[in-house]
Amino acid sequence: IGIPYPWKTYSQIPVQDFMYGAMENTSATVFGDFFCVDERGYRDRNYVAVNAHELAHQWFGDLITARSAKHHWLQESFATFYNWLYEKEAFGADHFDWNRHNAAQSALQASREDLLPVAHSQAGTVRHYPKGAHVLYMLREVCGRANYNKAIRRYLRSFGFKNVDSQDLLNSFHDELGLELDWFWNQWVYKGGEPHFHVITETVTNADGKPEARFIVRQEQEEGELSSVFQMPMNLAVYLKNGQVVRSRQWIRSKNVTLTVPLPDGAEVDFMVADENRQILSKQTFEASPEALRNMALHAKGLLDRYAALENLRKVSLQDKRTVLLQVLNSPHEFHALKLEALRQLLPSIETDPEVLSAFRSAIKSSDMELQKGSTQLLLPLLPSPSILGLLPEIQALFNQANASYQLLENALNLACRWQPERAAEWLAATPALSGNRGKSLEICRLELTVKHQLPQADAALKSLEEYASPRYEFITQTQAWAALARLDYLSPALLDYALVAMEHSNGRLAGPVRSTLKELLSRHRHQAMLNSWLQAHPDLAAQMQSKIR
Fold first, then answer.
1. Max alpha carbon distance in the chain (Å)?
2. How many CB atoms lie within 10 A of CB 295?
3. CA 43 to chain centre
4. Cβ-Cβ contacts under 8 Å for 535 (sequence gap 6 or more)
5. Whole-structure pTM over 0.90, yes or no?
6. Can you list the residues of the chain whose pLDDT is less than 50?
């Protein structure tokens, strides 16, 4: 955007037991040492997005700082939007669109609880981070990228080393561009909620005898003091059977509106898309035939339109969508999230349909690790059957896959032991002798399965899990060990000692999960006697322990 880095130096410092992902101190970011990963761990969770996010804060948060908590979004939304833009450069446009999709889903979920606006001190993480980032994306779409960047340059130059509020950002756009954008701030910044568009499409012949496509759009969101009818430009696309696409950009300005798009003479419509590639943060309900949905899933240009078509196919019988779902899976360049949606819908027929089984086999062998992880995750609840067991050679091959992430190895190990428990020792021996990055996840998985399947090393494995739950390890290892012990329904006096220390820890990501896990274990009555004995043996700590588990 043309504003140089405002400080003389930039340092990054890994910190043990850091409660958050990172923190953007001026000229120095501290981050959790759990981001120091190896090549396998990088494929599960890496520092790229957080790195870009904290660097963006050196401008948005440090060079300029929100005047009060009400305007906190001016820091987090900008940092999130710019880390999205860097992720787009690093991982591609589909990844960027999927970030927007997840932001929209999070915002819609938050609005089921309340309709607080982005500019509110209690708006919450979802609105200050992903929703606000999507709002900035829409603002850029409304103004145009060049104009948006000009206004942001003015904002940073005008308010560098000062405090700002939401109105200062609006004034920067007004002063630089001469655009009247109060309407945008009123509906996206100062009010809450999101539009719910109910879209009906039809093709008609107009009064002049010409064909046209009609989009009948009705807004169905709650209206009140905190929410409103939205006005926004909407991109319309009419896909014709001859491969041509007719596009039009028109404004939604009222609760009910009919938008028309002229079509060529003799045009045959294949399917129609309102708000192409979901540029507007909204919920959209649309009506389309199974044929239109199938064609949209395969041929719509926008990733989010193809995904919306797949979502709507959930309501269609498997017989009427099976072919198109398999086509999505066979597409060499389709984004993994869409392939996983196709697999999810095909999963019920995996035992009776050889092509579906083959599709899962291909996904497990894919070069796309997100598809590998997602497909094996889908298989985890399934019980073994002759068809399912036919996938074991592919599962076994994952143990020897040189670049397999730790999560993928965990999935493979859990599947193999679930499907062939009598060979658990063999599967555990086949797993690479790696600890995993984030909290020794793979090692804890191996230890838990060793105990679960009552192998000769079970007692030693249980003691190792108990050790990993102790304060001698950082918080992620502790919480993952506690989770494994809870699944094994195991508690000991030593663990009660460790639990009290953990529950007193300043890191809420340790204290909270351990407290919840301990309460879950104690709800199983067989552990009550142990707790009573511990309380009697530690009279000076009894009140402290009881207050934590109450």
1. 92
2. 18
3. 15
4. 542, 545, 546
5. yes
6. none
